[in-house]
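Something for you to look into today, if you have time. Just paste the record in under my message, thanks.
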Amino acid sequence: MSRVAKRSTKRSVKTKERIALAAAINELGFEVMPCSHCFSRGLCCRMIESSSRCGECVRRGRSCDGSGVPVLSLSCIVDESKRLDRLEQDAEEALRADRDLLAKAQCRLDESLARLDRIRRQKRSLLSRGSEMVCRGLTSLDELEEVEQQESGAVLGVQLNGGVDVVDWGAVFDSVPVLPLVDPGSAGGTNFFDVPFFLFVLCFDVHGNLGVFRCWFKKRNMKNIRLWAHR
């Protein structure tokens, strides 16, 4: 057999092998993103695992620049991307809702803090006024006790000297019916209140003993009468 015939026979065998491999790839492989040759001609680019060339490039005996990424995987990626987009949108809406709730809660918190601060100020003011009132009451009580002690000492001193304290007899006589007091020996019936005179009154002293109070009345003046007790 001549050399030409042998070469022709070898080529035909390789061509048959490439065609058979290409057919197997197209039959058993999966569709991938098209390589430049398949993309330019609008062909379906198919590959099998562990292969770097598509069926068309194997058939042609050419190199292949295909990525080997299955179209189905790309569809899954696209679908997954859409799903993630929906989840992202839902998360954004939930975030906006939570932010609105947080703003309302912060507003209520600010109102509660302001109310608490106002109540505390009112409480402090009330306690301050109460303390001031107590201090004033204690001061007044001390003053009253001091006055009472002074009066008690004065009364005790007068009693030890055989007399009584000064009495406002005007208030006493205001509650007693006023009767005309005249001098029977006078021709015109001289009123005793027109001139100074002495009035002796029988009464009981603070110890229950009978005594006589000599009252000096000044003309037309019933107040600030000094009394002297005489046994």
